[in-house]
Amino acid sequence: MAKPRAVVTRRPPGSALESIESEAAVWLWDENRPIPTDRLVEAIADADGLYCMLTDAVGAGLLQAAPSLRVVSTMAVGVDNIDLAACTARQIPVGHTPDVLNETTADTAFALLMAAARRLGEGRDYVRAGKWDQWEPELLLGHDVNDSTLGIIGLGRVGRAIARRGLGFGMRVLYCGRHRQPAIEADLGVIHRDLNALLSESDHVVVATPLTTETEHLIDAAALARMKPTATLVNISRGGTVDSEALVDALQSGQIAAAALDVTDPEPIPADHPLVGLPNCFIIPHLGSSSRRTREAMADLATANLLAGLRGDRLPACANPEVYGKASPSPPD
Ligand code: DGY
């Protein structure tokens, strides 16, 4: 019997490609840049499965161009680039990669928090500029992470891993989200607040919520105005949850002390964007899950999802389980 056809939009790390090839005839976009939409539309015409990246927009138009498509598998936990409703309407399960990246992404959130609150980027620039010619009692004073209040927006799997790190640093941990989570509050000792209270009480705020229509520009000028002038904002969710223009104003005016971004809007952010030039804004290029071990685990889970879909089996990690007849879920984190 002929193998099913799979389009793979980027060479995945580790041995994922060999595993896919063992069960599917693969069409691979093997360039070191995202596949242009017209090439994807062309490639997907006779595909049974799509293995994609968070940079690929999988919308209703693309699905229409793929009449035989039976499974979409993204090598990411976030599915904001995929029209889940359109996939569900076609009974196409969408695989994603929850859990395997929780700890690595939480490490990144903490690295960003430490870097921004303690001004490590400015310190590195200072040394590189040859300005370090003496010890100074008030050189680049930052704000403590230990013994402070951490506010986590979105206490999903990654948010909880960040909370555990905060507790380990002796922080008081607040959270807000779609639902109150009493069992987690009791288990971890985290405290629920509504968004406005969390913003005004926290010394450091981490955005860890998925990007949805409800969370787009959740952190806007009004939200930033509620934060302390000594506060740090960290975004490890998606760039669209923060209004970039409002953030530029807040950082320039001293409305907040610092920001650290793993994700930006636009993304990639151009080098001449005002956020990039601000000394109190520490930006990295969407590296949240970027350890070798974690990216390989994501690639393997995405492979398992793809192959399960091609075989007609239930996906190990499905973002739209209602295709199997379940009630509509909340958006995955
Ligand atoms: C994801 O998987 O959604 C992350 O953003 C990748 O780092």
Features:
alpha/beta, Rossmann fold, 2 domains, five-stranded parallel β-sheet, 13 helices, binds (2R)-2,3-dihydroxypropanoic acid
Protein model, in words:
The protein is α/β, with parallel strands linked by helices and 333 residues long. It folds into 2 domains: 5-100 and 293-324, Rossmann fold; 102-283, 3-Layer(aba) Sandwich (Rossmann fold), CATH 3.40.50.720. The chain is built from 13 helices and 12 strands. α3 links the parallel β3 (49-52) and β4 (71-74). α1 (16-23) packs parallel to α13 and α5 crosses α7. The two termini are 38 Å apart. 46% of the residues are buried. The chain binds (2R)-2,3-dihydroxypropanoic acid. Residues 54, 76-78, 97, 101, 286, 288-289 line the site of (2R)-2,3-dihydroxypropanoic acid.
